[in-house]
Amino acid sequence: MSEEAEFIEYMQIQGSTDLITKTELLVEMRQRNLAISDRTLTFYITKGIIPKAARIGSRSGVYPRIITELLALALLNRERGASIEATKQLIPLWKLIAKGAVNGDLDLAEIEYVARQHVTMADANFVVPFMMSEVLSYLAPRDRNEIIWRLKDGDEIHQSRSETFEISFVLGAEDEDGVARAIAWAQLKLPGFDDHPDLDDPRTIILGVPIGKSVEPRSLFAASVDGAPSEALAAPVPREVAVPR
């Protein structure tokens, strides 16, 4: 994708012509207590995570305002121990969720499809529930009365601002026999977390295995049967990430 096409794509996702300068972008990150420097921003641009700034009319060095949230994701992922490669893997999914949050219309089947197609790394999959929560917190317009959630079975739920909506995430992995089994899970209640998920629930998003691969449950869902505690989606072990400060 050309730089011009990429710039236009982000403008279309945000649904407005709002722009932000490099200085304003850095200031906003610092106001969110996210460590950032000119060198760090340049690093993310060279890695293809943040697009290059553009000249629009008399204004030079500007970005679509939504890039603020993409940069925040990259910086938060650094704190979570996720790699640069993991953050890059998440961008197609981030774009989809961001567009849905702005429009107030999110399709869980489409979200799962894009996640399973593009997100393969463990540390990238770990970030998905947090990313969705953060995107909705910052990008869903406060003046909208409801958000439409399109479930995987085709049903729709209209969530008002006074109601909660629960989404489950199940992380699967293939064993040596090629069988995909659930290895971890998380539930997102907007806002918050709740009980263990149902693999067949149309609000459950499967992560970590190819499209079309069914996931077999394992002991993490068997608490009511054998007393084994359910496991939360565990964070990856933080590792050294060579990102300039």
Describe what this molecule looks like in 3D:
- It contains 8 helices and 10 strands.
- It is α/β, with parallel strands linked by helices.
- The chain has a domain at 1-80: Recoverin, domain 1 (Orthogonal Bundle).
- Strands 9-7-8-10 form a 4-stranded mixed beta sheet.
- Mean pLDDT is 82; it is low at 191-195 and 219-245.
Q: What structural class do helix, strand and pairing data support?
A: alpha/beta
Contiguous low-pLDDT stretches (5 residues minimum) are 191-195, 219-245
Q: What is the quaternary state of this protein? A: single chain
Trace the largest sheet across and list its strands.
Answer: 9-7-8-10
Q: What does the average pLDDT come to? A: 82
**Top-tier CATH class of the domain at 1-80:** Mainly Alpha
Helix content: 40-55%
Give the CA-CA distance, first to last residue: 28 Å
Number of helices: 8
- CATH fold type of the domain at 1-80: Recoverin, domain 1
| Beta-strand content estimate | 15-25%
Biggest beta sheet attributes:
4 strands, mixed
In total, the number of strands is 10
> Topology as H/E string?
HEHHEEHHEHHEEEEEEH
What Rg is obtained from the alpha carbons, in whole angstroms?
19 Å
The shape is globular
- The assigned CATH architecture of the domain at 1-80 is Orthogonal Bundle
